[in-house]
UniProtKB/TrEMBL annotation:
This is flavonoid 3',5'-hydroxylase. Its main location: membrane. It comes from Epimedium sagittatum. Gene3D superfamilies: Cytochrome P450. The lineage of its organism: Eukaryota, Viridiplantae, Streptophyta, Embryophyta, Tracheophyta. The chain crosses the membrane at residues 6-29. It is an enzyme of class 1 (oxidoreductase).
Protein backbone atom coordinates (compact mmCIF):
# COMPACT_ATOMS: atom_id res chain seq x y z
CA UNK A 1 0.00 0.00 0.00
CA UNK A 2 2.81 2.38 0.92
CA UNK A 3 4.63 1.61 -2.35
CA UNK A 4 1.48 2.31 -4.38
CA UNK A 5 1.13 5.70 -2.69
CA UNK A 6 4.75 6.54 -3.52
CA UNK A 7 4.19 5.60 -7.17
CA UNK A 8 1.07 7.75 -7.30
CA UNK A 9 2.89 10.72 -5.74
CA UNK A 10 5.77 10.29 -8.18
CA UNK A 11 3.35 10.19 -11.11
CA UNK A 12 1.55 13.30 -9.86
CA UNK A 13 4.88 15.08 -9.43
CA UNK A 14 5.87 14.18 -13.03
CA UNK A 15 2.56 15.51 -14.37
CA UNK A 16 2.98 18.78 -12.46
CA UNK A 17 6.55 19.20 -13.75
CA UNK A 18 5.43 18.48 -17.32
CA UNK A 19 2.56 20.98 -17.16
CA UNK A 20 4.84 23.61 -15.59
CA UNK A 21 7.42 23.20 -18.38
CA UNK A 22 4.70 23.39 -21.02
CA UNK A 23 3.36 26.58 -19.45
CA UNK A 24 6.82 28.14 -19.41
CA UNK A 25 7.47 27.16 -23.03
CA UNK A 26 4.08 28.32 -24.31
CA UNK A 27 3.56 31.51 -22.33
CA UNK A 28 6.75 32.82 -20.78
CA UNK A 29 9.42 32.11 -23.39
CA UNK A 30 9.21 34.65 -26.24
CA UNK A 31 8.18 33.21 -29.60
CA UNK A 32 9.79 34.21 -32.87
CA UNK A 33 7.61 36.79 -34.57
CA UNK A 34 5.86 35.72 -37.77
CA UNK A 35 5.12 38.95 -39.58
CA UNK A 36 2.54 38.91 -42.35
CA UNK A 37 3.05 41.25 -45.31
CA UNK A 38 1.47 44.70 -44.86
CA UNK A 39 -2.02 45.36 -46.16
CA UNK A 40 -5.35 47.04 -45.47
CA UNK A 41 -7.25 46.12 -42.29
CA UNK A 42 -10.56 45.60 -44.03
CA UNK A 43 -13.95 45.13 -42.39
CA UNK A 44 -15.04 42.73 -39.65
CA UNK A 45 -15.89 39.21 -40.90
CA UNK A 46 -15.65 40.00 -44.65
CA UNK A 47 -12.17 41.53 -44.48
CA UNK A 48 -10.93 43.35 -47.58
CA UNK A 49 -13.56 41.96 -49.95
CA UNK A 50 -15.68 45.17 -50.04
CA UNK A 51 -12.57 47.25 -50.76
CA UNK A 52 -11.90 45.63 -54.16
CA UNK A 53 -14.88 47.18 -55.98
CA UNK A 54 -15.69 46.50 -59.62
CA UNK A 55 -12.09 46.86 -60.87
CA UNK A 56 -9.98 44.81 -58.42
CA UNK A 57 -6.83 44.92 -60.54
CA UNK A 58 -6.85 48.74 -60.44
CA UNK A 59 -7.66 48.93 -56.70
CA UNK A 60 -4.93 46.40 -55.85
CA UNK A 61 -2.41 48.33 -57.98
CA UNK A 62 -3.25 51.51 -56.04
CA UNK A 63 -2.96 49.65 -52.71
CA UNK A 64 0.47 48.31 -53.65
CA UNK A 65 1.79 51.89 -53.88
CA UNK A 66 0.96 52.28 -50.17
CA UNK A 67 1.67 48.78 -48.84
CA UNK A 68 4.46 47.58 -51.10
CA UNK A 69 5.20 44.88 -53.70
CA UNK A 70 4.06 41.99 -51.46
CA UNK A 71 0.70 42.73 -49.86
CA UNK A 72 -1.55 40.63 -47.62
CA UNK A 73 -5.33 40.95 -47.48
CA UNK A 74 -7.63 39.15 -45.09
CA UNK A 75 -10.48 37.85 -47.25
CA UNK A 76 -13.26 36.43 -45.10
CA UNK A 77 -11.87 33.38 -43.33
CA UNK A 78 -8.82 33.07 -45.59
CA UNK A 79 -5.94 35.23 -46.75
CA UNK A 80 -4.69 36.49 -50.11
CA UNK A 81 -1.21 37.69 -50.98
CA UNK A 82 -0.70 39.97 -53.99
CA UNK A 83 2.56 40.38 -55.92
CA UNK A 84 2.79 43.64 -57.87
CA UNK A 85 6.37 43.94 -59.16
CA UNK A 86 8.64 41.79 -61.35
CA UNK A 87 10.83 40.80 -58.37
CA UNK A 88 7.90 39.78 -56.16
CA UNK A 89 6.32 37.87 -59.06
CA UNK A 90 9.62 36.05 -59.59
CA UNK A 91 9.76 35.11 -55.90
CA UNK A 92 6.36 33.40 -56.05
CA UNK A 93 6.30 32.02 -59.60
CA UNK A 94 9.92 30.89 -59.86
CA UNK A 95 11.61 30.56 -56.45
CA UNK A 96 8.49 29.19 -54.72
CA UNK A 97 6.87 27.80 -57.86
CA UNK A 98 6.26 24.27 -56.56
CA UNK A 99 4.60 25.61 -53.37
CA UNK A 100 2.16 27.65 -55.46
CA UNK A 101 1.39 25.10 -58.17
CA UNK A 102 -2.23 24.39 -57.15
CA UNK A 103 -5.40 26.40 -57.70
CA UNK A 104 -7.90 27.30 -54.97
CA UNK A 105 -11.14 25.30 -55.11
CA UNK A 106 -13.50 28.19 -55.77
CA UNK A 107 -16.87 28.47 -57.47
CA UNK A 108 -15.38 28.78 -60.95
CA UNK A 109 -13.49 25.50 -60.61
CA UNK A 110 -16.48 23.74 -59.04
CA UNK A 111 -19.44 24.95 -61.04
CA UNK A 112 -17.91 25.86 -64.42
CA UNK A 113 -14.92 23.52 -64.82
CA UNK A 114 -16.64 20.24 -63.93
CA UNK A 115 -15.38 20.32 -60.33
CA UNK A 116 -11.78 20.99 -61.42
CA UNK A 117 -11.71 18.03 -63.83
CA UNK A 118 -10.09 20.27 -66.47
CA UNK A 119 -6.49 21.35 -67.05
CA UNK A 120 -6.72 24.95 -65.81
CA UNK A 121 -8.03 24.25 -62.30
CA UNK A 122 -6.84 20.66 -61.73
CA UNK A 123 -4.40 19.98 -58.90
CA UNK A 124 -0.76 19.74 -59.88
CA UNK A 125 -0.43 15.99 -60.33
CA UNK A 126 -0.67 13.04 -62.76
CA UNK A 127 -3.98 13.99 -64.41
CA UNK A 128 -2.95 17.61 -64.94
CA UNK A 129 0.40 16.44 -66.32
CA UNK A 130 -1.30 14.08 -68.77
CA UNK A 131 -3.84 16.67 -69.98
CA UNK A 132 -1.09 19.20 -70.53
CA UNK A 133 1.19 16.70 -72.26
CA UNK A 134 -1.51 15.54 -74.70
CA UNK A 135 -2.60 19.12 -75.41
CA UNK A 136 0.99 20.15 -76.14
CA UNK A 137 1.74 17.15 -78.35
CA UNK A 138 -1.38 17.45 -80.48
CA UNK A 139 -2.44 21.11 -80.37
CA UNK A 140 -0.45 23.67 -78.39
CA UNK A 141 3.22 22.72 -78.86
CA UNK A 142 5.49 23.99 -81.63
CA UNK A 143 5.35 20.91 -83.85
CA UNK A 144 1.59 20.60 -83.44
CA UNK A 145 1.09 24.28 -84.25
CA UNK A 146 3.07 23.86 -87.46
CA UNK A 147 0.93 20.84 -88.36
CA UNK A 148 -2.30 22.88 -88.15
CA UNK A 149 -0.98 25.96 -90.01
CA UNK A 150 -3.16 25.26 -93.06
CA UNK A 151 -6.28 25.29 -90.87
CA UNK A 152 -5.42 28.78 -89.59
CA UNK A 153 -4.75 30.01 -93.11
CA UNK A 154 -8.05 28.71 -94.50
CA UNK A 155 -10.19 30.01 -91.61
CA UNK A 156 -8.50 33.39 -91.77
CA UNK A 157 -9.24 33.43 -95.51
CA UNK A 158 -12.96 32.94 -94.79
CA UNK A 159 -12.84 35.86 -92.35
CA UNK A 160 -11.06 38.17 -94.82
CA UNK A 161 -13.59 37.37 -97.53
CA UNK A 162 -16.49 38.16 -95.18
CA UNK A 163 -14.84 41.44 -94.19
CA UNK A 164 -14.32 42.35 -97.83
CA UNK A 165 -18.04 41.82 -98.45
CA UNK A 166 -18.87 44.02 -95.47
CA UNK A 167 -16.66 46.77 -96.88
CA UNK A 168 -18.52 46.65 -100.22
CA UNK A 169 -21.81 47.15 -98.40
CA UNK A 170 -20.44 49.88 -96.15
CA UNK A 171 -21.19 47.81 -93.02
CA UNK A 172 -19.25 48.09 -89.81
CA UNK A 173 -17.25 45.10 -88.63
CA UNK A 174 -17.73 44.11 -84.97
CA UNK A 175 -14.20 42.91 -84.26
CA UNK A 176 -14.91 40.63 -81.28
CA UNK A 177 -17.71 38.74 -83.03
CA UNK A 178 -15.65 38.28 -86.18
CA UNK A 179 -12.62 37.01 -84.26
CA UNK A 180 -14.62 34.60 -82.09
CA UNK A 181 -16.25 33.05 -85.16
CA UNK A 182 -12.89 32.50 -86.89
CA UNK A 183 -10.99 31.27 -83.83
CA UNK A 184 -13.74 28.89 -82.70
CA UNK A 185 -13.62 27.29 -86.15
CA UNK A 186 -9.82 27.09 -86.05
CA UNK A 187 -9.95 25.33 -82.70
CA UNK A 188 -12.89 23.16 -83.79
CA UNK A 189 -10.86 21.81 -86.70
CA UNK A 190 -8.05 20.77 -84.34
CA UNK A 191 -10.28 19.31 -81.63
CA UNK A 192 -13.06 17.77 -83.70
CA UNK A 193 -11.99 17.83 -87.38
CA UNK A 194 -14.86 20.21 -88.22
CA UNK A 195 -15.90 23.82 -88.30
CA UNK A 196 -18.19 24.29 -85.32
CA UNK A 197 -20.01 27.24 -86.94
CA UNK A 198 -20.70 26.95 -90.67
CA UNK A 199 -21.91 30.53 -90.99
CA UNK A 200 -21.60 33.55 -88.77
CA UNK A 201 -24.96 34.24 -87.17
CA UNK A 202 -27.10 33.73 -84.11
CA UNK A 203 -25.36 30.55 -82.95
CA UNK A 204 -21.83 31.96 -83.14
CA UNK A 205 -22.90 35.26 -81.55
CA UNK A 206 -24.50 33.34 -78.65
CA UNK A 207 -21.26 31.39 -78.24
CA UNK A 208 -19.34 34.67 -78.02
CA UNK A 209 -21.75 35.93 -75.36
CA UNK A 210 -21.33 32.68 -73.39
CA UNK A 211 -17.53 32.94 -73.53
CA UNK A 212 -17.57 36.55 -72.35
CA UNK A 213 -19.97 35.66 -69.53
CA UNK A 214 -17.77 32.75 -68.44
CA UNK A 215 -14.65 34.89 -68.36
CA UNK A 216 -16.52 37.57 -66.42
CA UNK A 217 -18.11 35.42 -63.71
CA UNK A 218 -15.00 33.24 -63.30
CA UNK A 219 -13.01 36.37 -62.41
CA UNK A 220 -15.42 37.72 -59.80
CA UNK A 221 -14.50 37.67 -56.10
CA UNK A 222 -17.43 35.60 -54.84
CA UNK A 223 -18.04 36.06 -51.12
CA UNK A 224 -18.98 32.38 -50.77
CA UNK A 225 -15.45 31.36 -51.81
CA UNK A 226 -13.98 33.28 -48.86
CA UNK A 227 -16.67 32.65 -46.23
CA UNK A 228 -17.69 29.01 -46.83
CA UNK A 229 -20.23 29.10 -43.98
CA UNK A 230 -22.52 31.36 -46.03
CA UNK A 231 -21.74 29.93 -49.49
CA UNK A 232 -25.14 28.18 -49.55
CA UNK A 233 -26.86 31.60 -49.52
CA UNK A 234 -25.28 32.65 -52.87
CA UNK A 235 -25.61 36.27 -51.77
CA UNK A 236 -24.93 37.83 -55.17
CA UNK A 237 -26.39 35.04 -57.32
CA UNK A 238 -22.97 34.29 -58.84
CA UNK A 239 -23.13 30.53 -58.27
CA UNK A 240 -26.63 30.33 -59.76
CA UNK A 241 -25.35 32.10 -62.86
CA UNK A 242 -22.38 29.73 -63.07
CA UNK A 243 -24.65 26.69 -62.90
CA UNK A 244 -26.91 27.99 -65.68
CA UNK A 245 -23.91 28.86 -67.86
CA UNK A 246 -22.29 25.48 -67.22
CA UNK A 247 -25.46 23.74 -68.38
CA UNK A 248 -25.38 25.70 -71.66
CA UNK A 249 -21.74 24.84 -72.29
CA UNK A 250 -22.26 21.20 -71.35
CA UNK A 251 -25.13 20.89 -73.84
CA UNK A 252 -23.04 22.60 -76.54
CA UNK A 253 -20.00 20.37 -75.94
CA UNK A 254 -22.12 17.21 -75.92
CA UNK A 255 -23.69 18.32 -79.20
CA UNK A 256 -20.30 19.08 -80.80
CA UNK A 257 -18.81 15.73 -79.78
CA UNK A 258 -21.92 13.79 -80.88
CA UNK A 259 -22.01 15.49 -84.31
CA UNK A 260 -18.30 14.84 -84.77
CA UNK A 261 -18.71 11.13 -83.95
CA UNK A 262 -21.48 10.85 -86.55
CA UNK A 263 -19.08 12.03 -89.27
CA UNK A 264 -16.54 9.29 -88.50
CA UNK A 265 -16.70 7.90 -92.02
CA UNK A 266 -15.79 11.30 -93.49
CA UNK A 267 -12.66 11.65 -91.41
CA UNK A 268 -9.20 11.94 -92.88
CA UNK A 269 -6.09 10.06 -91.80
CA UNK A 270 -4.87 12.86 -89.51
CA UNK A 271 -6.19 12.30 -85.95
CA UNK A 272 -7.76 15.20 -84.08
CA UNK A 273 -7.39 15.85 -80.36
CA UNK A 274 -10.60 13.94 -79.57
CA UNK A 275 -9.09 10.84 -81.22
CA UNK A 276 -6.02 11.14 -79.02
CA UNK A 277 -7.99 11.67 -75.82
CA UNK A 278 -10.39 8.80 -76.56
CA UNK A 279 -7.47 6.46 -77.27
CA UNK A 280 -5.94 7.42 -73.97
CA UNK A 281 -9.25 6.91 -72.17
CA UNK A 282 -9.32 3.32 -73.36
CA UNK A 283 -5.67 2.62 -72.44
CA UNK A 284 -5.78 0.62 -69.19
CA UNK A 285 -2.02 0.91 -68.68
CA UNK A 286 -1.96 4.71 -68.24
CA UNK A 287 -3.57 7.43 -66.16
CA UNK A 288 -7.21 7.31 -67.25
CA UNK A 289 -9.22 10.21 -68.58
CA UNK A 290 -13.00 10.25 -68.21
CA UNK A 291 -15.56 11.68 -70.60
CA UNK A 292 -15.92 14.55 -68.12
CA UNK A 293 -12.16 15.24 -68.29
CA UNK A 294 -12.43 15.49 -72.08
CA UNK A 295 -15.37 17.90 -71.97
CA UNK A 296 -13.65 19.98 -69.28
CA UNK A 297 -10.46 20.22 -71.38
CA UNK A 298 -12.46 21.22 -74.45
CA UNK A 299 -14.15 23.93 -72.38
CA UNK A 300 -10.69 25.28 -71.50
CA UNK A 301 -9.47 25.24 -75.07
CA UNK A 302 -12.57 26.74 -76.66
CA UNK A 303 -13.05 29.55 -74.14
CA UNK A 304 -9.47 30.56 -73.37
CA UNK A 305 -8.39 29.90 -76.96
CA UNK A 306 -10.96 32.27 -78.40
CA UNK A 307 -11.36 34.95 -75.75
CA UNK A 308 -7.87 35.78 -74.55
CA UNK A 309 -6.35 36.08 -78.02
CA UNK A 310 -9.34 37.94 -79.49
CA UNK A 311 -9.31 40.47 -76.64
CA UNK A 312 -5.60 41.20 -77.21
CA UNK A 313 -6.17 41.70 -80.95
CA UNK A 314 -9.15 43.98 -80.26
CA UNK A 315 -7.11 46.10 -77.83
CA UNK A 316 -4.22 46.30 -80.32
CA UNK A 317 -6.46 47.45 -83.18
CA UNK A 318 -8.10 50.02 -80.89
CA UNK A 319 -4.73 51.45 -79.86
CA UNK A 320 -3.52 51.58 -83.46
CA UNK A 321 -6.67 53.34 -84.64
CA UNK A 322 -6.25 55.90 -81.88
CA UNK A 323 -2.61 56.35 -82.97
CA UNK A 324 -2.60 56.60 -86.80
CA UNK A 325 1.18 57.05 -86.75
CA UNK A 326 1.56 53.50 -85.42
CA UNK A 327 -0.86 52.07 -87.98
CA UNK A 328 0.96 53.87 -90.78
CA UNK A 329 4.36 52.55 -89.69
CA UNK A 330 2.97 49.01 -89.47
CA UNK A 331 1.57 49.33 -93.01
CA UNK A 332 4.89 50.60 -94.31
CA UNK A 333 6.80 47.66 -92.76
CA UNK A 334 4.35 45.13 -94.20
CA UNK A 335 4.35 46.69 -97.66
CA UNK A 336 8.13 46.51 -97.68
CA UNK A 337 8.38 42.90 -96.43
CA UNK A 338 5.27 41.39 -98.07
CA UNK A 339 3.96 43.80 -100.69
CA UNK A 340 0.30 44.09 -101.67
CA UNK A 341 -0.07 41.22 -104.10
CA UNK A 342 -0.44 38.46 -101.52
CA UNK A 343 -1.59 37.80 -97.96
CA UNK A 344 0.69 37.74 -94.96
CA UNK A 345 2.06 34.26 -94.26
CA UNK A 346 3.15 32.94 -90.86
CA UNK A 347 6.68 32.62 -92.27
CA UNK A 348 6.72 36.44 -92.66
CA UNK A 349 6.30 37.07 -88.93
CA UNK A 350 10.00 36.90 -87.87
CA UNK A 351 10.75 39.72 -90.35
CA UNK A 352 7.97 42.00 -89.03
CA UNK A 353 9.80 43.44 -86.02
CA UNK A 354 7.47 46.42 -85.61
CA UNK A 355 4.40 44.17 -85.61
CA UNK A 356 6.03 42.05 -82.89
CA UNK A 357 6.71 45.23 -80.90
CA UNK A 358 3.02 46.21 -81.23
CA UNK A 359 1.99 42.80 -79.88
CA UNK A 360 4.40 43.03 -76.93
CA UNK A 361 3.17 46.54 -76.12
CA UNK A 362 -0.42 45.28 -76.12
CA UNK A 363 0.52 42.37 -73.86
CA UNK A 364 2.11 44.92 -71.52
CA UNK A 365 -0.67 47.51 -71.37
CA UNK A 366 -3.70 45.24 -71.83
CA UNK A 367 -2.83 41.76 -70.45
CA UNK A 368 -5.63 39.31 -71.14
CA UNK A 369 -5.61 37.99 -67.53
CA UNK A 370 -4.91 41.08 -65.36
CA UNK A 371 -4.59 39.19 -62.05
CA UNK A 372 -3.30 35.97 -63.59
CA UNK A 373 -5.12 32.82 -62.53
CA UNK A 374 -5.13 32.40 -58.73
CA UNK A 375 -2.84 29.91 -57.01
CA UNK A 376 -2.72 28.68 -53.41
CA UNK A 377 0.17 27.77 -51.09
CA UNK A 378 0.41 24.12 -50.07
CA UNK A 379 2.91 24.87 -47.27
CA UNK A 380 3.79 27.96 -45.19
CA UNK A 381 6.72 29.92 -46.63
CA UNK A 382 8.58 33.22 -46.43
CA UNK A 383 8.87 35.99 -49.04
CA UNK A 384 10.87 39.19 -48.55
CA UNK A 385 11.06 38.41 -44.83
CA UNK A 386 7.28 38.04 -44.52
CA UNK A 387 5.45 34.91 -43.39
CA UNK A 388 2.93 33.41 -45.85
CA UNK A 389 0.62 30.86 -44.16
CA UNK A 390 -0.42 27.56 -45.70
CA UNK A 391 -3.60 27.89 -47.77
CA UNK A 392 -2.96 31.51 -48.76
CA UNK A 393 -4.39 32.50 -52.14
CA UNK A 394 -1.92 34.16 -54.55
CA UNK A 395 -2.74 36.81 -57.15
CA UNK A 396 -0.02 38.28 -59.36
CA UNK A 397 -1.11 41.71 -60.60
CA UNK A 398 0.20 41.49 -64.16
CA UNK A 399 -1.75 44.66 -65.03
CA UNK A 400 0.09 46.61 -62.31
CA UNK A 401 3.50 45.32 -63.42
CA UNK A 402 2.79 46.46 -66.98
CA UNK A 403 1.93 49.97 -65.79
CA UNK A 404 4.63 50.42 -63.15
CA UNK A 405 6.61 53.64 -63.80
CA UNK A 406 9.58 52.07 -61.98
CA UNK A 407 9.65 49.37 -64.66
CA UNK A 408 8.40 51.15 -67.79
CA UNK A 409 8.99 54.70 -69.00
CA UNK A 410 5.68 56.54 -69.60
CA UNK A 411 3.71 53.34 -68.94
CA UNK A 412 0.28 54.78 -69.78
CA UNK A 413 1.36 55.60 -73.33
CA UNK A 414 1.07 52.99 -76.08
CA UNK A 415 4.59 53.02 -77.53
CA UNK A 416 5.66 49.91 -79.47
CA UNK A 417 9.05 51.53 -80.13
CA UNK A 418 10.05 50.79 -76.52
CA UNK A 419 10.52 47.14 -77.58
CA UNK A 420 12.84 48.12 -80.42
CA UNK A 421 15.34 49.76 -78.06
CA UNK A 422 18.44 47.87 -76.95
CA UNK A 423 17.18 47.87 -73.35
CA UNK A 424 13.89 46.05 -74.07
CA UNK A 425 14.46 44.31 -77.41
CA UNK A 426 15.13 40.92 -75.84
CA UNK A 427 12.17 41.01 -73.45
CA UNK A 428 9.86 38.15 -74.37
CA UNK A 429 6.30 37.36 -73.19
CA UNK A 430 6.89 33.62 -72.72
CA UNK A 431 7.37 33.72 -68.94
CA UNK A 432 11.12 34.24 -68.52
CA UNK A 433 11.16 38.05 -68.26
CA UNK A 434 9.03 39.02 -65.27
CA UNK A 435 8.54 42.57 -66.55
CA UNK A 436 6.24 41.03 -69.18
CA UNK A 437 4.33 37.91 -68.13
CA UNK A 438 0.91 38.13 -69.84
CA UNK A 439 0.60 34.32 -69.74
CA UNK A 440 1.98 33.90 -66.22
CA UNK A 441 5.16 31.94 -65.47
CA UNK A 442 6.43 28.75 -63.87
CA UNK A 443 4.82 25.31 -63.92
CA UNK A 444 1.30 26.69 -64.24
CA UNK A 445 2.08 29.12 -67.04
CA UNK A 446 -0.74 29.16 -69.58
CA UNK A 447 -0.50 25.97 -71.63
CA UNK A 448 -1.50 27.93 -74.75
CA UNK A 449 1.31 30.51 -74.53
CA UNK A 450 2.93 29.52 -77.81
CA UNK A 451 -0.41 29.26 -79.62
CA UNK A 452 -1.60 32.57 -78.16
CA UNK A 453 1.45 34.47 -79.38
CA UNK A 454 1.20 32.84 -82.82
CA UNK A 455 -2.51 33.63 -83.19
CA UNK A 456 -2.14 37.23 -82.04
CA UNK A 457 0.80 37.98 -84.33
CA UNK A 458 -0.63 36.16 -87.35
CA UNK A 459 -4.25 37.36 -87.13
CA UNK A 460 -3.44 40.93 -86.07
CA UNK A 461 -0.78 41.17 -88.76
CA UNK A 462 -3.15 39.85 -91.42
CA UNK A 463 -5.93 42.27 -90.44
CA UNK A 464 -3.58 45.26 -90.43
CA UNK A 465 -1.92 44.27 -93.69
CA UNK A 466 -5.19 43.52 -95.49
CA UNK A 467 -7.26 46.59 -94.57
CA UNK A 468 -7.33 50.25 -93.72
CA UNK A 469 -9.19 50.76 -90.44
CA UNK A 470 -11.49 53.69 -89.66
CA UNK A 471 -14.24 54.48 -87.17
CA UNK A 472 -17.53 56.08 -88.19
CA UNK A 473 -17.45 59.86 -88.38
CA UNK A 474 -17.79 61.49 -84.99
CA UNK A 475 -17.31 58.23 -83.06
CA UNK A 476 -14.56 58.12 -80.45
CA UNK A 477 -13.00 54.78 -79.54
CA UNK A 478 -13.90 53.83 -75.98
CA UNK A 479 -10.91 52.41 -74.09
CA UNK A 480 -12.67 51.53 -70.84
CA UNK A 481 -12.05 48.09 -69.36
CA UNK A 482 -14.51 45.45 -68.16
CA UNK A 483 -12.96 43.28 -65.44
CA UNK A 484 -13.09 39.50 -65.52
CA UNK A 485 -10.79 36.52 -65.72
CA UNK A 486 -9.95 38.07 -69.10
CA UNK A 487 -9.77 41.85 -69.57
CA UNK A 488 -12.45 42.81 -72.09
CA UNK A 489 -13.17 46.14 -73.71
CA UNK A 490 -16.23 47.61 -72.00
CA UNK A 491 -17.49 48.75 -75.41
CA UNK A 492 -16.66 46.35 -78.28
CA UNK A 493 -14.71 47.81 -81.19
CA UNK A 494 -16.67 48.43 -84.39
CA UNK A 495 -14.88 49.70 -87.50
CA UNK A 496 -15.18 50.42 -91.20
CA UNK A 497 -12.56 48.52 -93.20
CA UNK A 498 -11.29 49.18 -96.70
CA UNK A 499 -9.24 46.56 -98.64
CA UNK A 500 -5.69 47.64 -99.43
CA UNK A 501 -4.40 44.52 -101.26
CA UNK A 502 -4.91 43.24 -104.76
CA UNK A 503 -8.30 41.43 -105.19
CA UNK A 504 -6.66 38.03 -105.71
CA UNK A 505 -5.16 38.22 -102.20
CA UNK A 506 -8.65 37.83 -100.68
CA UNK A 507 -9.52 34.57 -102.46
CA UNK A 508 -9.94 31.62 -100.08
Amino acid sequence: MFIEVLVLVDLLYSVIVFLTVQFLVCYLIPKPQRTLPPGPKGWPVVGALPLLGKMPHVVLAQMSIKYGPVMYLKMGTSGMVVASTPDSARAFLKTLDINFSNRPKDGGATYLAYNAQDMVFADYGPRWTLLRKLSNLHMLGGKALDGWADVRKVELGHMLKAMQESSKNGKEVVVAEMLTFAMANMIGQVLLSRRVFVTKGKESDEFKDMVVELMTVAGLFNIGDFIPQIAWMDVHGIVGGMKRLHKKFDELLNKMIKERNLMEFERKDKPDLLDVLMANRDDKNREQLSHTNIKALFLNLFTAGTDTSSSIIEWALSEMMKNPRILKRAHEEMDQVIGRDRRLEESDLPKLTYLQAICKETFRKHPSTPLNLPRVSTQPCEVNGYYIPKGTRLSVNIWAIGRDPNVWENPLEFTPERFLSEKNAKIDPRGNNFELIPFGAGRRICAGTRMGITLVEYILGTLVHSFDWKVCNGVEINMDEAFGLALQKAVPLSAIVRPRLSPKAYLV
